[in-house]
Amino acid sequence: MSADYPAASEAERASRVIKVSEVPEVQLVPGTSTHIVPGRNMTLSFITLGANQTFPVHSHPHEEMIIVLKGELDTIFEDKKYRMGEGDVMPVEADVPHGVQILDNECVLLEIFVPARKKYEEKLREASGSA
Length: 131
Hints:
Blueprint: H1 10-16, E1 25-29, E2 32-38, E3 43-49, E4 54-58, E5 63-70, E6 73-77, E7 80-84, E8 89-92, E9 98-102, E10 107-114, H2 118-128
Antiparallel strand pairs: 1-2, 2-3, 3-10, 4-9, 5-8, 5-10, 6-7, 6-9
């Protein structure tokens, strides 16, 4: 099927395709960094969490999907602990209290926020020097 379409130019590709490793790293708290990829109505956060870190129960007005790319963690949701590992996904509705406890090894997550998480995008602009 792709043979039926002309290849995008390098400029077109550069305007559409983002290499996560080339996105400036943003430190959220000591031991936790992320690569933030903003969209029009959503924000992606490729977050690396250090071993044994705790993020207390909190809530925010964004719907969130938590996808474990590497490692294991316990997610606190509705007053219960859920063990999550590579390939596991947990939807978190807006304004629902949740938190995480990272286990003995670093953990990498993809977090998807809808609507866009503007505070994260602000941190990206600061890290990029375009605040």
